[in-house]
Write a structure and sequence with these properties.
GTP binds at residues 17-24, 85-89, 139-142. The chain has 541 residues and is α+β, with helices and mostly antiparallel strands. The structure holds guanosine-5'-diphosphate. Guanosine-5'-diphosphate binds next to helix 2.
Length: 541
């Protein structure tokens, strides 16, 4: 297959949703279609206290939530699919945000009884900023749902997203009898199969077919006909160009657990979604390279290899005790044993231990293409956001930073394992599990950690103990807001600055000044009293 054909068949996406909307269930069904279940061992029901293929960390098992992202790769209908799993719990949204920098499209799963929920909204915003295509699946139609028209209205009013339904539900809850495909004008009838383990048997017919008439009660039939007329008359026509630029979302309805409407979704998604797109390379001085790189778009068919690391995961396999850097390939062809430049350090590295990943299973990968995600084992020098390339003029800056909301001091209460503690903490910080800052007036020996949610701190403690055998102590710090301050002479002597009680100062790891606030009020007071000090949500580049 030619490189162009290899790239054109890649589909790299993530499923975004509020917890419990059905992301795991849908993922499992996709794997079923991709014939990939055998690779993972059986994907199991979480209710039986067993983990699914993508839930493999001990802590995840204990809590029944998904913490770390994995990559699920499978072939379906000629497409090479990279499905990037994202942690669902809100405390891990930072990790999820980073994963979303590596995808070319997103599938938004919504519980049709609940509509757009908080976590979906946040994740959607991250996708929208990147302009990637977003497809919508209204799940759980076998249960009583909101009116489907109201669900579309919510996409418009809550997310500001124009929608175009491709698949329309026939009834809901007990009267859910199937879906109507607005493209082919065909009805797919749904039959309940206990457990929904296999593809539900489907009958395809016209809306006015006697079989369909017989299945639908008069009320549902009339309602559906009215809704379809309304959509045909007043709905947004499907606009592929708008979809591929993230301006319109195709909407599908179905039921993941019953495996109904899933194939229609998968087929439609893979057809209308996009192959890998060119990425922006930024202007930056790279070590050992004579001039700064120039900002430009790197075409996916650029023969030079490039990619960026968007996630680091340590010790996926307790037996191996190693570390995997996940690399999203952006251009060129990856070949095992190739030598690339690590742009941040300017060093040449040989990529000999590269893996295709599937939950906890690995398979050595000899070649890979733009859109693919590979795991690189054993390079402790790699950090999140690093570019690896054979072209010194390419450097990506794809890692968004997010405002921290919780803060805690961590320290080592047991001097006997101080060395292990320091090594472990350094490693975890490099992985980006949490961020760290230097706070003025920090207790001796304590490091200030900042995260999006408190569970991230627990992960740090748990991993220090289980992977580095190091004890740690957490003491909550009183702030809820962190801002970066533009450099200003007054910051050299913060005690001269007028602040409300509880406000503190510090620096990030690059020595940029930061200000820490206990609440909104103290922030507003600061802005009012110190107009000359400019604050930002993100570090100043
Ligand atoms: P996640 O948190 O988004 O990964 O959600 P899960 O896939 O774990 O699903 C949450 C719950 O919803 C589980 O109990 C599923 O069995 C259930 N569920 C998923 N899809 C459907 C569906 O189509 N219909 C119904 N009734 N329940 C569903």
């Amino acid at each position: 297959m030619s490189p162009a054909a290899e790239i054109a068949r890649r589909r790299t996406f993530a499923i975004i949703s509020h917890p419990d909307a059905g992301k795991t269930t849908l993922t499992e069904k996709f794997l079923l279609y991709g014939n990939a279940i055998h690779l993972a061992g059986a994907v199991k029901d979480r209710k039986n206290q067993r983990a699914t293929a993508s839930d493999w960390m001990e802590l995840e098992k204990q809590r029944g939530i998904s913490i770390s992202s994995t990559v699920l790769q499978f072939d379906y209908n000629g497409c090479a699919v990279n499905l990037l799993d994202t942690p669902g719990h809100k405390d891990f949204s930072e990790d999820t945000y980073r994963v979303l920098t590596a995808v070319d499209a997103a599938l938004m799963v919504i519980d049709a009884a609940k509509g757009v929920e908080a976590q979906t909204r946040k994740l959607f915003e991250v996708c929208r900023r990147r302009g990637v295509p977003i497809f919508t699946f209204m799940n759980k139609c076998d249960r009583p749902t909101m009116n489907p028209i109201a669900l579309l209205d919510e996409l418009e009013s809550v997310l500001g997203l124009q929608s175009s339904p491709v698949i329309w539900p026939l009834g809901n809850g007990p009267s859910f009898k199937g879906v109507f495909d607005r493209r082919t004008r065909e009805v797919h009838l749904f039959e309940r199969v206990p457990g929904g383990k296999f593809q539900a048997p489907v009958n395809v017919a016209d809306l006015n077919d006697p079989l369909v008439r017989e299945k639908l009660d008069d009320y549902t039939f009339d309602q559906v006909r009215e809704q379809l007329e309304m959509l045909d008359g007043a709905g947004h026509p499907f606009d592929l160009n708008a979809v591929q630029h993230g301006q319109q979302t195709p909407v599908y309805f179905g039921s993941a657990v019953n495996n109904f409407g899933i194939q229609l979704l998968l087929d439609g998604f893979l057809k209308d979604s996009v192959p890998p797109a060119p990425r922006k390379s930024v202007t930056i001085s790279v070590p050992g390279f004579p001039q700064p790189t120039t900002a430009r778009e790197v075409p996916v068919d650029d023969p030079k290899f490039s990619g960026f690391i968007f996630k680091i995961q340590a010790n996926m396999d307790a037996k191996h005790r190693d570390r995997i850097a996940f690399l999203r390939i952006c251009s060129g062809k990856f070949e095992r044993d190739m030598v690339v430049t690590h742009q941040r350090t300017g060093k040449q590295v040989r990529l000999s231990s590269s893996h295709k990943l599937f939950g906890r299973d690995r398979e050595t990968v000899d070649e890979a293409w733009p859109g693919d995600v590979i795991g690189l084992v054993g390079h402790s020098e790699f950090g999140i956001g690093d570019t690896l390339t054979t072209d010194r003029s390419i450097c990506y800056d794809e890692i968004p930073r997010f405002p921290s909301e919780v803060f805690s001091y961590i320290s080592n209460p047991n001097t006997g394992d101080a060395k292990k503690y320091r090594a472990g903490l350094e490693q975890l910080l490099q992985e980006g599990v949490v961020q760290s800052f230097n706070a003025r007036n920090a207790p001796p020996g304590a490091t200030l950690l900042a995260a999006v949610g408190p569970l991230q701190f627990e992960v740090v403690q748990w991993r220090l103990q289980s992977e580095y055998n190091a004890e740690s102590k957490l003491v909550p710090a009183p702030w809820t807001l962190l801002k970066w301050a533009e450099p200003h002479p007054a910051l050299k002597n913060p005690s001269s600055i007028v602040v409300a009680q509880g406000v503190s100062f510090g620096t990030d790891k690059f020595d940029n000044p930061i200000v820490l606030f206990p609440n909104d009020w103290t922030l507003r007071y600061f802005i009012e009293k110190n107009p000359e000090l400019k604050l930002h949500d993100m570090p100043i580049e």
